[in-house]
Amino acid sequence: MSDPISTEEQLIAKRREKLEALRESLGSNPYRNGFKRDSLAENLQSEYSDTTSEQLVTLKQKVSIAGRLMTQRIMGKASFAHIRDMTGDIQIYVKRDSLPEGVYQDFKKWDLGDIVFARGEMFRTQKGELSVLVDEISLVTKSLRPLPEKWHGLSDLESRYRQRYLDLIMSDSSRDMFRKRTHVINFVRQFLTKRDFLEVETPVLQPIYGGANARPFTTHHNALDQKLYLRIADELYLKRLIIGGFDRVYEIAKDFRNEGMDKNHNPEFTMLEFYWAYADYEDNMNLVEKMLRSVADSIGKTKINWGEMTIDLSKPFKKRPILELLNEATGEDLADFSEEKLREVCKSNNVDIESNYNYGQMLDALMSELVEPKLIQPTFVIDYPKAISPLAKKHRNGNQNLVERFELFIGGSELANSFTELNDPIDQRDRFESQVRLAEGGDDEAHPIDENFLEAIECGMPPTAGVGIGIDRLVMLLTENVTIKEVILFPSMRSEE
Fold first, then answer.
1. Least enclosed by CB within 10 Å: which of 32, 115, 250, 300?
2. 153: pLDDT confidence band, cut at 50, 70 and 90?
3. What is the DSSP secondary-structure string of 432-485?
4. CATH number of the domain that 94 lies in?
């Protein structure tokens, strides 16, 4: 069996020879500009889908197209080929006698993957395929590397992620998936804008990270001679805008967390956060449910295949208190458990925890292991303990140990996180200080104190509700992908040796 690497090198060498021959040919440039297409494949397929062969003959519609040469069926005096642009494929019919002398012979030497420009008249073949009868064709860009083998494409997942450009060239489903991602983001943006939310931009480089419990990436600003952090969340800056008088704000932004990688986590990810004054977490539940159902409906995907189950976004979302779910899972009433007793519960349920885990971290571990994988249908998990929600407001029911917070779980994964935001500056300082004590105890994801934010909130922040939604996970759900790398164009990868 031949060595595939050696074979590829031979093919590249042959293409380089063709390139040099083209460069030496009088007036031939394999990397030319100045070609203007007026049509895309998808638009042509749509516009002329019902046009008969006879009607096309009468119309004599001329079009200009450009794209990558994906197939060639070379015959003596005429050939068929397919050109692929950003929208899809269109067939071309190339006849020797319809082209200037020598052009057809040149065309037969071009390779799959070359980028070409063609102009001609629309027609249908005897088999009924919409095509372009070419009267002008040019090589625009010479491709030096062969495309993946036609029938198998990029079968290796790592290759697909590292060489996303090849994945997009070869895979209709990948191109369609990323178009849907763009649609989802645009829909969300329009949904919020129609409800008077103002889109804003906040700093990516921050002197103090905050807004979530996560480990940050650090960097150094040379001119300031100062350590900076890539943001882990947008929350504290968006709240500053609420304080400043922008009552409804949102941001679709890149956030960064220096944490592990798995099917649901990538260190660089896209987050939607929105905040609105004079609202609470109940309002957020209503708005989030409406938003998700609307965006799913916009792509015809309110019922989602998830393994052997069907997730139904058209039905009302469930609401379950977190302690109620944990009590059911453990058979214990955890409301008043000490850290020592909670540690015993983790051990008896075979939930692995570190020796320095605090109360909140143990609750998270129990949720992750015993509850979250079973939350397949949309479920708002509500009313979290204050110990694991340093930025949320105390519950209005009077329970001083609970806050008004929800996390939305669908398909066994967290999709959204929301608070009725804490706006008491004294309480906020106390909670920041408790986070510092956690950090001193070994919690490397605890909040630092942000004095500038405390000064801002001391100016007065109106009652406010906020939501964070993972865009990548939302796209995973709506495209029925179980791995986050499938929905990120260029996911984080370990450097190749």
1. 300
2. low
3. HHHHHHHHHTT-TTSPPP-HHHHHHHHT---SEEEEEEEHHHHHHHHTT-S-GG
4. 2.40.50.140
